[in-house]
Write a structure and sequence with these properties.
Blueprint (H helix, E strand, L loop, with lengths): L1 H25 L5 H26 L1
Helix pairs in contact: 1-2
Length: about 60
C-alpha cells in the first residue's frame, strides 16, 4: 500500500500544487512567498488525498 500511496502522490501532489498556484494568481497574489506557500499547501494536501484514494482502490 505504501508504494501505491507514493505513486498516487506523485500525480496528485503536483496537480493540487498547480491548482493552488492558479487560485492564488487568479485572486491577485503576485509575491514569490505566497505563491510558494500556495504550492506547498497543495503538495501537502496531496498526501491525505493519496492515502484516501489508495484505501478506496484497495
Amino acid at each position: 500500500m505504501t508504494r501505491l500511496i507514493l505513486i498516487l502522490h506523485m500525480m496528485i501532489g503536483p496537480t493540487l500544487a498547480g491548482v493552488g498556484v492558479v487560485i492564488a494568481l487568479v485572486s491577485g497574489v503576485a509575491g514569490l512567498w505566497p505563491l510558494l506557500g500556495a504550492a506547498g499547501a497543495g503538495w501537502i494536501i496531496g498526501w491525505p488525498a493519496a492515502i484516501v484514494v489508495a484505501r478506496r482502490m484497495q
